[in-house]
Amino acid sequence: MSDRVLLVKLGETDLVLADPEDDIRGRTVVDTDGEKFGKVDGLFLDHDEGKVRLLQVVDGGFLGLGKESRLVPVELVRKLDADQVVIDRHRQAVVDAPGYDPELTDAPDYDDIYRYYDVGPWWGTRPFG
Q1: How far apart are CA 93 and CA 32, in angstroms?
Q2: Is pLDDT larger for residue 88 or for residue 104?
Q3: Fewest 10 Å CB contacts: which of 36, 74, 75, 93?
Q4: Quick check: 2 pLDDT over 60?
Q5: How many CB atoms lie under 10 A from the CB of residue 79?
Q6: Distance CA 23, CA 40 (A)
Q7: Do 127 and 119 touch, CB atoms closer than 8 A?
Q8: Phi/psi class of residue 77: alpha, beta or left (left: φ > 0; alpha: ψ in -120 to 50)?
Q9: How buried is residue 112: exposed, middle or buried, by Cβ count under 10 Å (0-12/13-18/19+)?
Q10: pLDDT confidence of residue 62
């Protein structure tokens, strides 16, 4: 587990986004091929810096059963509009990412997430490798 600062999930704190337009929860996630495959279910914030660091993307399920949750670094967001969040990965890359089950853990391993997506973490300047 990373010894970095812990992130907090917006909605489980008294924090609010300065601009309500920045709240992308509920928007559809779209991959690099334009395929829709999930929704933004949560935002993980760096409390100290007040920045969103990870998106919680949920996919699948029916009436809350069988849905899967993955965390995606905000560095992968390429475009936002009123209804969608376009990320710089194919759907399968997100589906194959380490799962996140909020019922089992409050603090995911950020190192593993950033390493999986091969992007530099917010606390450093170099990508993993």
Answers
A1: 11
A2: 88
A3: 36
A4: no
A5: 10
A6: 10
A7: yes
A8: beta
A9: middle
A10: 59
Q: How many angstroms separate the CA atoms of 105 and 52, rounded? A: 19
Asked whether residue 24 carries a pLDDT value surpassing 90, the answer given is: yes
What are the chain's domains?
Answer: 7-117 (2.30.30.240)
55 is written with which tokens? Answer: 């998106």
